[in-house]
Amino acid sequence: MREPTFMILTALAGEPLHGYGLITEVARLSDGRVSLRPGTLYGALDRLVDAGLVAVEREEVVDGRLRRYYRLAEGGADLLAAETERMRRNVAAATARLKTRTHRGAPRLSGGTA
């Protein structure tokens, strides 16, 4: 799963959001690493809705413009949980390897005290 998709699903796990709210929440959750443009976001939302991962919660008119709120669907919550677990296992494996590398690759001091 690409990071923008993961972050959209993560943002929607909290509460239903409209487009600008999603853009803002994804930027906040990713510490600014993921910056969604409206065209990219709405294309992704269309795909996620078609896949049954996200659903339209409600629509309202604000200042003469339609504002659509999206929510995480059950399929999206299941996929997000599975992806989170996959990433957790990858982090655990990498952390274990780095610990092994640190111990094997640690420089040795010769003579004297450090």
TrEMBL record:
Matching PANTHER family: PADR-FAMILY TRANSCRIPTIONAL REGULATOR (PTHR33169)
Domain Transcription regulator PadR N-terminal: 8-81
Coiled coil: none
Signal peptide: none
Domain of life: Bacteria
Protein name: Transcriptional regulator PadR-like family protein
InterPro entries: Metal_resp_DNA-bind_regulator (IPR052509), Tscrpt_reg_PadR_N (IPR005149), WH-like_DNA-bd_sf (IPR036388), WH_DNA-bd_sf (IPR036390)
